[in-house]
Amino acid sequence: MMDLGHTPTTSQPSTSDEWDLDGDTLHEECGVFGIYNAPDASALTALGLHALQHRGQEAAGIATYDGKHFHLERRFGLVGDNFSDASTMERLAGTAAIGHARYSTAGGAALRNVQPLFAELDGGGIAVAHNGQFTNAMTLRRSLIKRGSIFQSTSDSEVVLQLIAKSRESNIVDRFIDAIRQMEGGYALVALTRKKLIGARDPLGIRPLVLGDLDGSPVLASETCALDMIGAKFVREIENGEVVVCSEDGVKSYRPFPRQPARLDIFEYIYFSRPDSVLAGRSVYEIRKAMGRELAKENPIDADVIVPIPDSGVPAALGYAHETGIPFELGIIRNHYVGRTFIEPTQQIRALGVRLKHSANRAVVQGKRIVLVDDSLVRGTTSSKIVNMMREAGASEVHLLLASPPITHSDYYGIDTPERENLLAAQYDLEGMRNYIGADSLGFISIDGIYRSCGYEGRNNDAPQFTDHCFTGDYPTALVDVDAAENHRAAALLVETD
Amino acid sequence: MMDLGHTPTTSQPSTSDEWDLDGDTLHEECGVFGIYNAPDASALTALGLHALQHRGQEAAGIATYDGKHFHLERRFGLVGDNFSDASTMERLAGTAAIGHARYSTAGGAALRNVQPLFAELDGGGIAVAHNGQFTNAMTLRRSLIKRGSIFQSTSDSEVVLQLIAKSRESNIVDRFIDAIRQMEGGYALVALTRKKLIGARDPLGIRPLVLGDLDGSPVLASETCALDMIGAKFVREIENGEVVVCSEDGVKSYRPFPRQPARLDIFEYIYFSRPDSVLAGRSVYEIRKAMGRELAKENPIDADVIVPIPDSGVPAALGYAHETGIPFELGIIRNHYVGRTFIEPTQQIRALGVRLKHSANRAVVQGKRIVLVDDSLVRGTTSSKIVNMMREAGASEVHLLLASPPITHSDYYGIDTPERENLLAAQYDLEGMRNYIGADSLGFISIDGIYRSCGYEGRNNDAPQFTDHCFTGDYPTALVDVDAAENHRAAALLVETD
Amino acid sequence: MMDLGHTPTTSQPSTSDEWDLDGDTLHEECGVFGIYNAPDASALTALGLHALQHRGQEAAGIATYDGKHFHLERRFGLVGDNFSDASTMERLAGTAAIGHARYSTAGGAALRNVQPLFAELDGGGIAVAHNGQFTNAMTLRRSLIKRGSIFQSTSDSEVVLQLIAKSRESNIVDRFIDAIRQMEGGYALVALTRKKLIGARDPLGIRPLVLGDLDGSPVLASETCALDMIGAKFVREIENGEVVVCSEDGVKSYRPFPRQPARLDIFEYIYFSRPDSVLAGRSVYEIRKAMGRELAKENPIDADVIVPIPDSGVPAALGYAHETGIPFELGIIRNHYVGRTFIEPTQQIRALGVRLKHSANRAVVQGKRIVLVDDSLVRGTTSSKIVNMMREAGASEVHLLLASPPITHSDYYGIDTPERENLLAAQYDLEGMRNYIGADSLGFISIDGIYRSCGYEGRNNDAPQFTDHCFTGDYPTALVDVDAAENHRAAALLVETD
Amino acid sequence: MMDLGHTPTTSQPSTSDEWDLDGDTLHEECGVFGIYNAPDASALTALGLHALQHRGQEAAGIATYDGKHFHLERRFGLVGDNFSDASTMERLAGTAAIGHARYSTAGGAALRNVQPLFAELDGGGIAVAHNGQFTNAMTLRRSLIKRGSIFQSTSDSEVVLQLIAKSRESNIVDRFIDAIRQMEGGYALVALTRKKLIGARDPLGIRPLVLGDLDGSPVLASETCALDMIGAKFVREIENGEVVVCSEDGVKSYRPFPRQPARLDIFEYIYFSRPDSVLAGRSVYEIRKAMGRELAKENPIDADVIVPIPDSGVPAALGYAHETGIPFELGIIRNHYVGRTFIEPTQQIRALGVRLKHSANRAVVQGKRIVLVDDSLVRGTTSSKIVNMMREAGASEVHLLLASPPITHSDYYGIDTPERENLLAAQYDLEGMRNYIGADSLGFISIDGIYRSCGYEGRNNDAPQFTDHCFTGDYPTALVDVDAAENHRAAALLVETD
């Protein structure tokens, strides 16, 4: 899900982990969830979204169908803050529900962009929630507007809805399939109609989607951790290019696209998915530890302590420590009370910067040669400050190791990456980056290293097992909108604050 | 503007004058305003809407165009509470603006129903605000949905927007005209495009719309009082069936409908328009006083004091007092601090009922024969309580006179009337009504009397000068949706709380 | 009740009638209410305060005792907005309650200044609400602080509470009397203890307080209109200098001060009390009409219409019209939807100024010689704008008559008057004022005229029947704090926003 | 700081980490901070409080003095959410400031209980913030009320303020000392007067307080991590029984109490202080690791993985892992987005319970013999659920080890412990506890073990180096209020919601 050039004029409250000094983090934009034929469907959906909250903390929404009406609630803020009170949950009546947790770009957005989106169709309604990004959304949007469609949001996800509404197919599943066949990009979709819960994954399976079972009720979720949360059993992954339809007749599978090998986004392993999730049969936590071990093999350093940059660097740091025998220590303490902290920092607070979220544990660091381990390096601004903080705390040497290769390209499949010119690795070579960061040494895992961590011998360059475009520039689909170079004009017509 | 069977599950705050004990009041549903080519267009629009606030207090919205973007702000509550702070007004940049003040039915509605509504069209955007009601909206809506349109609101006004978006005409004015030609009903519309401000009045001119001029900038408003507020000069009324287009080329007039005599809604004189407005060349205040005089001629009563039911009954009561020489006295004091008062009244408060808003001025009433004068009688519940309150305050006789005929039929052109079975005059004859109210006598002005008050000899039954359907059942247009008897199903699919 | 030099740094929302262009209105600062031994005591108190809302709209509070605990709720805003929901009213459990409606000076204040105030005493608690002002509060406050008292508010009312807490008397009534004996000024007080409801009026009876009866339950209220609201019978006024104590033993009267003739503040008749209230046996409405008649005798004008400045000028205008036979007409329409309107007016709105609240009814005014009637003239800024608005609407002559004498002195008994140098009548002679206002003529009722309107032959200068210090400078009590010229330093130590 | 029997009727939002299923956590109630003679004193105080946020997340307040006025802002919620916007910080003008972060008991409290508290004294004002609890507060409060003091809060901290106000000493430092000499208990106090910043620590030094220096400006803080946050140097700890006064004359030390050995609360090492703080010369992180090693020596277990209960159990688990060589693994993932989550959980959410905050990392746990390490065991409810969650995730053995001895006694010095009958270790013997928890084995560190972890040979029973009353019942001061057994009556007179 992506905002199409919309530049809202007010900011919505951002939540804890979004806070970063200068956008020096990657953000997955969404998590989706759906459940069919279960009592308390909305409460279960709220729990599922809570488990997926790491995929998007800005806003959340739930749609239900109670046999007569659809109910839709969309709110800014955390799921738990908005979908727990009795009155909200009572309004979300029904035994089928879908939900969406969303991260959004720069500074906020209007409520009408929050998902699920809803459309009244001839013969019923449909609610849709989307994780990912369509690479031809702008192009299709312009064409639909020419044909008289009115868009209610500036979200690229609405294009699917409009295509469904416009489809000449007679039944809802065919209309849904008709719509996604016109879309390019990476996506996991869940949709709710009066009689069905639908799930779909893009032809390459770039974004994840799993099927679970809760006492006979089918469940769809971005990650297995959402199944664990509600006590549902994992059944299987939705395959790349597959559409599943849950109804009174059980779960049916459709394959509207030509078969091809899956190419999951490798970043799901590196950063986005929760460590306790299992993705394509592999434990995310174990993959990350393996990356740490691989990192150690590729970048052995003579040091006193291994210090993870919390929390994302912890599993790789453990792997590094296990591989090398160097003690793993909490040399950086993370402050979990950042909240929406310091939204308008004074100059002084800005200068103290990184300490709002991380502080040095001097007892661990002082006089030591330390290896900092993190998952990835984006702009480098935070890393630079953390390295400096370690030196101020008395570290005698500071080495920075990353459990992913240098990020040299932007993403167009649902990850909010900086413009390419702001990616540190797109600006500098290794020594330039090291100098910018101020570390004694800087190291990255190799491209093949991450494939090895996943159990392969290395990257199969003829048919890569994953999509790794941020490291390689090897985009797995056409980038229609980018090529049309018209992104910026689209949908910027209206500026509205809710 | 009418809600299409939408039954929202939460209530928005209602504002002062909406508060009534049991819906015993008529409500106009909207006021519209537009200005073109004026600095501070949004501030002027806010002022204009403030002057039209009596036409709708539930919500308000303003749309502007700044040469590059449209800006839209819609809020629940009074104009002055929402459109006065610097940051909101700065966001509403531009020299052209339209605005809308809205009353809404039963208990509230979602923000997406608040106007202006906006659509991005091929080659530009359009914002539309609507006072009135379309009598074939549901029928058209169903047809549009069949053809793939997605509605963002449950408001009947959106049908116009969808028809504009779907029109095959090439320029925006032709598309607008193409759309309204398909609509039936009573309406005043203002619309804002990138280069034009458009105004339109229904073929019969049921709802009012005037053209003004502020230092060369054209202004559109539901009533002249909005022109007075901003210091604009009155130019002329928009004629029935006329479309005016304000652009850099000045104000152009279009006549897309066959010419026919106008039939303004007589209720604009009786109740809705502000007393200081001038409508069809007549002062509303003077008409109301004339109705009071006519009432006195038709219903002479031997009494000690004339007591208006404030505030709506004041001009007629003055007319009655002037005609008869009986003293006009404030026998009922109105509490203007009702606010959103007592939204959840306790049983005890409910029992004390009417006193929250009105209290007896015993010094005026005690031992006196009083004539209460009000503008109209709807359900009769409030009148009954006021009569009783007068008796408790010691009145020896209580007579109730109404400056309008008995209301026997519902409205379908933008007035929120109770179902017909709840209209007192549809249930009882005169004596039955008097008995229900508990007054010593009850009198109404005659149908011809109101026409005489407006300067005619009486009603021209062959070609009535106004529409007076609530008194006569003589509906001036087809009631397509009512006849299709399908109102209730439509648009009830989605229940969403903002 | 007066704020002691406290200059808060944020503003609370002001409510409708407080809105005035440049503070050109007088404000009574409070209304009080109490009820003993009645089911739903808090709901009845909310209703009573609603009826007293004209005496203060900024904030309100209610304290109850339920046999075990005191409950206290204090809120900014209208009574009806804050004391009607079920949960608030349930928290305010008990059969005895007191309440307070408050207007406050310049821009707002902290919640801790909102009344009732509460203190835990040895052997019980006490809640106190106060209308009026103590003229020696600062002096006593300084002395109490020296002795170790900690003040929780900057309200002068808290001095009473501190004196009660410090009193060496053994029972609560004696402690209360001990406290008020030390206070100077004008006040009506209600207090609630575990077993008693106490009411007290200052030795001269400057501020009003009445005793009512609701089915055997004693009621105290600032005005009779609050008794009418809840259906209670008027029993009698609390006399000047009287303390009444309502308990299981009935209502007992105490006379702790030397007897002296009462001197009610004449402004209660002129402006503050509600027209349907009866004060010292006289109908406020009838007194105001009598003032209008007296004004006509003293200032006969050859004019076409009498136009009240709404709403405060209406009764006097009716009196003037009745006396002279010149028609009474609504030449100015008041906009009741001002709300908290236009808190931050833009320059343009500021220029249009007075029209936000008042607009000219051109049909009445054009080409006419009009007499504007208002209750009083304070700074003159609003009057000047209204006169100008009348001229713009086409009036051929505009005369302004005031139903009170020129205000030349500030008040120190609970009315929020401008500093003396800002009172128009303290700056100019009659011709100077007329010139400032821009009227063709300007007239005031005479001092003796207002006494005649109240049924006297004139002012008894040896023993004036009322206090009329704002017109005469004849302050009826010592002005201890003013004489000590130390007002400004006191209590300005702390600035806190709630 | 302790609430005195106050049972408020509404709940304030609780923040993230407070959320626990059934109060199964210990809560420190406060952190304090002060700075003198520094530009941006309030911004630095906000940063300092942010670093101390782990000591209390319910509410925070800052008081400043700008040379003329004191400014006070108190808010519910996180420091970063409330003390970062420009307007708030501008209001908090001045170069001297104190601040307070607060946790509060069961369900919320009124804003007037939030600190700092303020009193206007003869000759100036004083603001006070307090961490800890006075064991004779109720007794003193009753005595003060008898003498005429009015309490503005129900907080025991206000007693200090009232004693200062009442003191007959002539200067403010002597009055402060006079006051604390009358108090019993554990406390760290900071106070701000017009010319001084005062800090004080109870005679035994039960609660911590340190002195720092920021470019010549003295700083006081509960922990060294707050000094690190603002870049201040650690100078020294305030000694037990010491009062320090920072003024233009520098930092002066007073010793108003007889000298005695310090007895820091051992819980500061075990749980409360932040791992990167240094307390009494010892790194909290290193002490906790040492406790883990000691735990391993006392409770060696043959297991496959060491799993910390995050986040509090991490350092001890690392120590255990280092000592034993068993791998440290993240077998439990903590959800940091709990927010104010699920304030009104549905029954279903309640059943899923512990997963909202913690989830099992099956890949680590399945088929393994695991040792769970946590810092302490209170009620046992959460531990029981976590043990069960580990079994459901496939653990073959689950052992629970605690890095503190069994908690058998309540605290009265500022820690919010359950009533004694709800402490698991007060109800059961070791086997009973193990059975309740459902673990295969349960182990605690010994009393001597924790002393050894701190560098001693063991507990000196004649003169214990710490206070460890929760484990031993050896309370270091008189428990005046407890002995008077009158806790419950006090201050419960008033129930007020802000």
From TrEMBL, chains A, B, C, D:
| Biological process terms in GO annotation | 'de novo' IMP biosynthetic process; purine nucleobase biosynthetic process
The UniProt entry, under PROSITE patterns, shows:
GATASE_TYPE_2
Pathway membership, UniProt = Purine metabolism; IMP biosynthesis via de novo pathway; N(1)-(5-phospho-D-ribosyl)glycinamide from 5-phospho-alpha-D-ribose 1-diphosphate: step 1/2
- Domain (Glutamine amidotransferase type-2): give its ranges: 30-249
Membrane-spanning segments: none
E.C. number: 2.4.2.14
Q: Which domain of life is it from?
A: Bacteria
Its protein name is: Amidophosphoribosyltransferase
Organism of this sequence:
Cohaesibacter gelatinilyticus
